[in-house]
């Protein structure tokens, strides 16, 4: 378990650093939509697909490699990549309805809860 913690932590740190670099490099280019975040999410979606297939085809590799890349690096770069892989797996399995539900729940739910979090902080601040 200690090796897993170390490799996940290293991967997560590298993914988070890449996300930060993308943000400071790209976000100012398109003020309407943070381009760095979009690139991180889209690249993360691509990379988790590549990584998942790579590790599936190289099952003999130590499990720590998968943990470092998928759980750590992709988790640090974007959790959107995990959502994308789960949704793609549902679609590949012919579970289109479940995939549509997952998309709706994740996207609408995440935005709604983000707005709720903003509201809670604004409300608490206004009561102080």
From TrEMBL:
Gene Ontology, cellular component aspect: plasma membrane
Known catalytic reactions: fluoride(in) = fluoride(out)
Activity control summary: Na(+) is not transported, but it plays an essential structural role and its presence is essential for fluoride channel function.
Any one GO biological process: cellular detoxification of fluoride
Membrane topology: Multi-pass membrane protein
This protein's UniProt keywords: Cell inner membrane, Cell membrane, Ion channel, Ion transport, Membrane, Metal-binding, Sodium, Transmembrane, Transmembrane helix, Transport
Pfam families assigned: CRCB
Record field: transmembrane: 33-55, 67-91, 103-125
Cell location: Cell membrane
Domain of life according to the entry: Bacteria
GO terms assigned for molecular function: fluoride channel activity; metal ion binding
InterPro entries, A to Z: FluC
Binding positions (Na(+)): 75, 78
Family: Belongs to the fluoride channel Fluc/FEX (TC 1.A.43) family.
Function in brief: Fluoride-specific ion channel. Important for reducing fluoride concentration in the cell, thus reducing its toxicity.
Protein name: Fluoride-specific ion channel FluC
């Amino acid at each position: 378990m200690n090796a897993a913690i170390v490799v996940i932590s290293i991967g997560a740190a590298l993914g988070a650093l890449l996300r930060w670099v993308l943000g400071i490099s790209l976000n100012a280019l398109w003020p309407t939509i943070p381009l760095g975040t979009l690139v991180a999410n889209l690249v993360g979606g691509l990379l988790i697909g590549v990584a998942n297939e790579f590790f599936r085809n190289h099952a003999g590799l130590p499990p720590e490699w998968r943990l470092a890349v998928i759980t750590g690096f992709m988790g640090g770069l974007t959790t959107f990549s995990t959502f994308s892989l789960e949704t793609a797996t549902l679609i590949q399995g012919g579970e289109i309805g479940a995939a549509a539900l997952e998309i709706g729940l994740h996207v609408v739910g995440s935005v709604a809860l983000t707005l709720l979090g903003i509201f809670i902080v604004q409300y608490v601040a206004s009561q102080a």
